[in-house]
Amino acid sequence: MRCGDFKTSYAADMAIFETPVSRWVTVAFLVALLTVPAFASSYWLDVLNRIAIAAIAALGLNILTGFTGQISLGNAAFMAVGAYATAALAGKAGLPFAMTIPLSGLVAAAAGMVFGIPSLRLKGLYLAMATLAAHFIVEFTASHWDGMTGGVNGISIPPASLGSFELGDDARLFYLFIPLAAFLTLFARNLFRTRVGKAFVAIRDQDISAEVMGVRVFRYKLLAFGVSSFYVGVAGSLTAYQARIISPENFPISLAIDQLGMVIIGGLGSVQGALFGAAFMTLLPELLRLATGALTGEFPHLTTLFAPLRTGLFGLVIVLFLVFEPDGLAARWRLIKTYWKLYPFSY
Predict the structure, then answer these.
(1) pTM summary value
(2) How far apart are CA 282 and CA 260, in angstroms?
(3) What is the tens place of the pLDDT at every residue in 271-280?
(4) What is the pLDDT of residues 181-197, one digit of tens each?
């Protein structure tokens, strides 16, 4: 009777998938996911595309905050950098999306590393305020550099296309967003099996001890900002291709707060947690919207209260998670898996 996992080699301990079953379940889930456009409505495809974008951005923030211990409130700014870079590369230079998406991520990574320079001397709240400054600088630039960004009126982005085949609707974008999110998730999972990823974790746990052991703290902190901002810039690029018109209003400071909430609810320092948090925080307002729509007949004024209800529910959920499940949904998922692995000796 199987009642746990017993590893007898270093390779088995370092495997991405702990068991063959988990590997095949993941493959089956991804294959099933790719069939969704055959029967899902445009509304739910839009929701799934937004979950993929949020998951990529939350993964980026989790690499910086959850795995390296650097607090950042500049995610919305770095998403904006990625989106406007896409507008420039695709709209003005005419590059195909296969080049604009990684190049936009690199532009955002460069911006993130610039604003990450204070991380050598700043920590915690002070570093958060330094990254918050990035948001206001990028927002001011996007609003006033009319020739490049279109100012407050925004700028349009041509649809992603493969030759004459345009990825213009939600169903076609789904086949771009989901595989890209899966690839970046796999990359993040592998990152923390490498020397770079372990250096990130050592800095998070105790940066002075890491430096004593030979980890170049400043270099790896900057690299963490670069990798994180690359993910966020890619998410911004995908947002540009989905929205087709971007303006500073697409990247408010509340977007950075939402992504921080995704990381907290999903689980700090967990790749799975970023995915769980992104799905949870994207679906929550949609479920609230459906609930208010269903109750509109009996409570006509309920629709006008949707925005404050969403904000209040968002705050309540974060507080409840911090009190009752501070390790997030990823910890609960691990407990569920452990229960079934040890069954019937789960006590």
Answers:
(1) 0.89
(2) 13
(3) 888 899 999 8
(4) 999 999 998 888 888 88
- 335 lies in some domain: no
Q: CA–CA distance from 45 to each of 28, 33, 36, 77, 170 (Å)?
A: 19, 11, 8, 26, 6
> What does the H/E/C string look like for 288-331?
HHHHHHHCCCCCHHHHHHHHHHHHHHHHHHHHHHHHHCCCHHHH
Report the C-alpha gap between 6 and 12 in whole angstroms.
9
Within a domain: 4: no
Closest CA to 53 of 36, 69, 75, 70: 75
CB atoms within 10 A of CB 339: 11
Q: What six digits make up the tokens of 319?
A: 């507080």
The domain of 70 spans 28-252
How many domains does the chain divide into? 1
d(CA 276, CA 185) in angstroms, rounded, equals 12
Asked if the structure places residue 144 within a domain, the reply is yes
Q: Map residue 155 onto helix, strand or coil.
A: strand
Contact 82, 306 (CB under 8 A): no
Q: With respect to residue 316, please indicate whether it lies within any of the assigned structural domains.
A: no
Residue 41 is classified by DSSP as -
Q: What is the mean pLDDT of residues 12-29?
A: 78
Q: Quick: pLDDT tens for 216-257.
A: 888 888 899 999 999 999 999 999 998 888 888 888 888 888
Both structure tokens of 33: 């996911």
Map residue 160 onto helix, strand or coil: strand
How far is the C-alpha of 323 from the C-alpha of 332, rounded, in Å? 14
